[in-house]
Amino acid sequence: MRKRSSGLAARGGRVWTDLLLRVVVPLVVIAGLLLGYRFLWVGPRDRLVVYCTHDSIYSKQVLEEFEERSGIATSMVFDTEATKSLGLVERLIREKNAPRCDVFWNNELLGTMDLAERGMLLGYKGSGFARIPDAFKDPEGLWVGFAARMRVIIVNIAKMQPTEGAMSAALDGDLSRAAIAKPLYGTTLTHYAVLWDHWGAERLKSWHRDIRRRGIRELTGNATVKNLVAEGVCDFGFTDTDDYFDARDEGKPVTMFPVRLDDGRVISIPNSVCILKGSRRVEAAKKLVDYLLSEEVELVLADSKARQIPLGQVAGARLNADVRELKNWAEQGYPLPRLGKARTDCLVWLKSEYLK
Q: Are residues 155 and 254 in the same domain?
């Protein structure tokens, strides 16, 4: 009987061991992974969750400074180089019915406008709202712009004369040595939306067909445009100020001209910040919005390698020479709050052109 009891006990032990390995241990592992995911990507319920598409090399230090000063713990989610700002905008749309994000810091504007049109944003007019000009904010406080880039033409001065006259002649001639990013995404889409709003649909479509007929190179992004001009493969191209400064800082033979509309205005494309409806920490979110829209933060971003342009009033003496010139141009910026419909209509047309 002892042997039989021992055998039963051994078999019982094996059953329990098998049950642990097949059922209990996997459940524990899954629970751990879920808790880890929640902590890393969503954050504990007492943290302010910030989604951010601005380059983390610049934005992370700003958010960490806010965290240290305010005592408000934040959980930061950044996009990737591959998805750009579009990835987090799409993620926010997917999470609309169960929002995880409190504050969205976007490195452009049109995606933020899309969220506003979907009724996903909470209006807020705090101290930061007041210092930003009307041309760069939603009148109801659904979003506010700050620290802008500008659309420019980057020119290789080893390939063409860096004069307004030479630039004008080049734009009217053969464009086989000129480049632009495809306008389905990013700041080139904003560029097209401004032209759609300012010129009207038919004139933009005509201009688009004309520059393609004259051989302009359509590339995957602004950085590629910058690289080809910097290396002399192209003579000039449409890009943003931050890309231009990348090339200049690398010692490339480049200069730039602002993209001007026929009324003299320029295209300034700000970062934007907004609070998501359903935020669990609205008061903390408001404090972060005010901080991002402060003179101090705009000056920090102006001093970065990207030389982002303050949109609110700042002490001029504290701006470096590059940004001081850009700020003078940016004050002639095209008003952005009305671009929502232009962006929607223009994008429908662009998809019919490129995604056939």
A: yes
Among 117, 59, 69, 107, which Cα is nearest to 86's?
107
Average pLDDT over residues 140-146: 97
Q: How far does the chain reach from its first CA to its final CA, in angstroms? A: 80
Q: For residues 129 and 146, give the distance between their C-alpha atoms in angstroms, rounded to a whole number.
A: 10
Q: Which of 75, 83, 9, 3 is nearest to 38 (CA)?
A: 75
Residue at 31 is within a domain: no
346 located within any domain: no
Looking at the structure of the chain, the number of domains it has is 2
Which pTM does this prediction carry? 0.83
Whether 207 and 66 map to the same domain: the answer is no
List the beta bridge partners of residue 274. Answer: 104
Per-residue tokens: 73:
């713990």
At 339-352, the pLDDT tens digits run 989 999 999 999 99
Amino acid of residue 114: D
